[in-house]
Amino acid sequence: MSGLSAEFFENQVIRASAGTGKTFALSNRFLRLLVSGVASETILATTFTRKGAGEILDRIVQRLAQAALDAESATKLADQLNCPGLNQLRFQDLLANLMKQLHRLQIGTLDSFFHRIVQAFRLELGLPAEWSIVDQQQIRRLQFQSIREILHEKTVIDLLHLLNQGDAGRKIADLIGKSVDDLYETYLDSNQDAWNSLLEVGDYQADKDFSDVVETLEAISYPHAGQKKQILKEIELMRSCQWKVLVDSSIFKVIVIGTNKYFKLLPDECLEAYKPIIEQCRGYVIDRLLRQNLATYRLLDEFGQRFEADKVRLGELRFDDITRKLQSYIAAADRDRISFRIDHHVDHLLLDEFQDTSLAQWNIIRPFAERTTADRAGKSFFCVGDLKQAIYGWRNGVAEIFDRVEHDLPNISLSPSLITSYRSSPAVIETVNQVFQNLDRYQPNDDNVKQAVTDWATRFQPHQTKKTELPGCVTIDYAPNGDDNRDAGRNERMLQQTVDLIRELYEQLPGRSIGVLARTNKSIGKLIFMLQDVGIPASEEGGNPLTDSAAVELVLSAMQLADHPGDSIARFHLSNSPLSVPLKLMLESATIQDEGFNRARQINAAANAASEQLRRQLSRQGYGSTVEELAGVLARHCTRRELSRLQQLVQQAFNYDRSHPEPGTRLRPTRFVKYIRDEFRASDKSSADVRVMTIHKSKGLEFDVVVLPMSSGQGWFSRPPSLIIGRASKTEPINLVSRMASEVERLLLPPEFETAFQQRCRSAVLDNLCVLYVAMTRAVHATHVVMSYGCKPENTSEAGVLLSTLVPEWQADLRDQGRLFTHGDPNWHQSPRQTEQAVESGESKRYYLPPDAGLTSLSLAKGGRSGRGIKR
Question: Fewer CB within a 10 Å sphere, N or C end of the chain?
């Protein structure tokens, strides 16, 4: 038998671009280890998602099964593994042994591996006897409970006053909830010293006298009347000690920024006089931010102590929780003891999609990596990833860890980068090269964006394609102008043009996969509705609120009315729907003939009766049965997708009952409404040819054709961050945290705060460029971009990058021409080779598509005893 020795496996790090065969390379490594005699349970193969882990296992089993069943496939696989002596019988033995050990295979996500270790060290980690990973709904319930508890603390009101800068107009619970949503993860990843970074800085004196400064400013002769007028306004602010307003004033700003020009250049005497004022404002800003930072930390700490204690007491944890608990324990733990507890050693480590690994995850897996790389005898390390596809920074992924691996681990061999695509046509790859090789043409009016684009360009190497004869094209279409020049109006026209394009492609390419990749979840619901309105079946993947369904909105209006019978909007909505009959809400109709007071009284009485009826039913039967009955009334009026949405709503109503078993928690139906509207996300998967999803959800997928709608109002900084967060380097712990400050305020802070802000802005740009790269590398044949009318080359968005690199001769009148860019053959689908190429490219693609999850025959269950809602 010809084979390999495990001692000869190099420790490899591979940078693999999109479509170049990362999964193939990793499955090759796994199979080579099996051929060399390595026990399958000693190989740990991990990736970032369960979908990716399933794909790795599928690929390994598929390739082995093909080689076991067919002599020609066996010869091909032996050549791919560089083991020419292997034959079909050998692969049959390997497959049989692998199937026997299937229950011991370690092919999964990092989270699943951590879960197994935590199960083995439950007592050492202080976990209860019974614990489990829970969904977001249960975590939200615990959060709400913890918020209610801390509201009983008298100090919390003072903290909130500081936190909200004295604005008491918002509901207290909502303010705490938003603070938890935005800031709690940072609180967990930092310590109090990081929040106290401003403690020793600043010298603010509230009652300091600046009469001499005022006299000097009044005596100066100003070269422009506008300067004198503004100086007098700012003098009044100095006299009244309104430092917060002064910081945002015009002359103060230009002096701090350094332009020193307001109408004309300001006199030198004015600049000199403002110096003590600037120092006073510096002290004021630092003092205010410090108090806000400390109040924020104390509030989060009050919440965190109760929340974390409740999670441990009830045994309800998230994967992030066990990762954090394991991180602090694993550094001091003995590797052999861990191996003994989990019943096997990790001798061979295979890491996929490594660019998405977080610092906490790397701190846990690093000791295993150091062990496999330090001991060359019978151990090995294999890591594959792509910095250009690091799109999970918002999940704490740190792509820079990938750069450190080759330096931090011993005996690492950096393999040549994989840049040859086995997926895309020449037209697609050439366009990708044209965009990312010419990023210097993109000149936005923001230095942070320019620097980030320059940094990203260093990651890119020109791509090639193995599919040199595959037909295809890339186009950019510009949506027409219209009377409504608001972003909303422009985006509506862009979405309509996107739907028209998809309909044309759907008719031209029967049976081909069309991926519609939207930037936001909000766009997905609109596109699904518009596509189905023109008769195109489209599946939705990822998460969207159920409220994109008219039937669901009616049920939620019923829940709203149950809690608030005086809600006139919910009442009107229900009275003009099929639910008006069972709820006896024939309001605003001919059944009530009286006018004036009597009519209003009858309407209110009917609404109160309907509310009471619903509340009694909710108290007696729960949300599941009540929602199921309401859905049964609506079912006959629904489309197929509306029925699917109703089914998901009924299922969530039963889940809500199980997670809120106490009768008292059912008394506020608006909490159920809030959960469905704000927290729950559902997908509508099927095997339709047109599949709509976010770009993040498309990672790892491929489509014959990709359609990319791009909005004009969607920039890279549409939502400013809540915090300034600093690190010594991106792979180091957080050492600086502060509430966000304005541009002028940041210039008054120590320089490390502005540096931290700039780094965060650049990280956002890097993430968005990675998202653009992922979107442009999903297509096999063609990519079609549709932009709204307001997109320009200087926009800080993906549209700006594409226009500046692909349409270099941009002129304003180009916007009225419709199609701005074409590369390749727009009639590629008429090529005589297209059918043959479709089969060739679809062999691996279709293997990994999810099975048909569509609903073929739906009926609503009667009553509520099934507990499962709408049945097939």
Answer: C
Tokens standing for residue 288: 């205010």
**How many whole angstroms separate alpha carbon 824 and alpha carbon 472?**
6
Residue whose entry in the numeric block shows the structure tokens 């966000």: 740
CA–CA distance, 375 with 827 (Å, rounded to integer)? 57
Phi, psi of 12, rounded to the nearest 5 degrees: -115, 145
| CA 296 – CA 740 distance, rounded (Å) | 12
- Would you state the structure tokens that stand for residue 186, as one six-digit string? 């940072």
Residue 51 has pLDDT above 50, yes or no: yes
Neighbours of 520 (CB within 10 A): 12
DSSP per position, 541-578? EEEE-GGGSHHHHHHHHHHHHHH-TT-HHHHHHHHTSG
Question: pLDDT, tens digit, for every residue of 676-716?
Answer: 887 777 766 556 789 999 998 898 889 999 999 998 766 77
Token match 């097939």: residue? 872
d(CA 574, CA 569) in angstroms, rounded, equals: 9
Q: pLDDT-based confidence at 632, cuts 50/70/90?
A: very high
The Cα 814–Cα 782 span in angstroms is: 23
**What's the Cα-to-Cα distance from 615 to each of 174, 601, 665, rounded to whole Å?**
25, 21, 12
How large is the angle between the packed helices 335-342 and 110-120, nearest 10 degrees? 90
CA 264 from chain centre, in angstroms, equals 47
CA 669 to chain centre: 29
Residue with tokens 């800085």: 201
Query: How many whole angstroms separate alpha carbon 55 and alpha carbon 32?
Result: 18
Q: Considering just the CA atoms, what is the radius of gyration of the chain in Å?
A: 31
- SS3 for 194? helix
Of 761, 862, 20, 772, the residue nearest 388 (C-alpha): 772
The 8-class DSSP code of residue 749 comes to S
Q: Which residue has the tokens 């705490």?
A: 176
- DSSP run (H or E) holding 149: helix 136-150
> Long-range contact list for 165-172, CB < 8 A, 24+ apart?
165/288, 165/292
Q: Could you give the C-alpha distances from 620 to 100, 557, 585, 654, 666, in angstroms and in order?
A: 51, 20, 22, 14, 10
Give the integer Cα–Cα distance in Å for 271 and 254. 10
Residue 344: the pLDDT is 78
Q: Are 48 and 110 in contact (CB under 8 A)?
A: yes
223 contacts 763 by C-beta, under 8 angstroms: no
In 405-530, the DSSP E strands lie at: 412-414, 420-421, 464-465, 473-478, 514-518
For 109-152, write each residue's pLDDT tens digit: 999 999 989 988 888 888 888 888 887 777 888 888 888 888 77
Which CA distances in Å does 235 have to 200, 273, 340, 671? Answer: 29, 12, 74, 51
Angle at 167 between CA 164 and CA 173, to 5 degrees: 65
437 φ, ψ to 5°? -85, -15
- Residue 305 near residue 299, CB atoms below 8 Å: no
* pLDDT at residue 168 in the model: 44
pLDDT at residue 847 in the model: 26
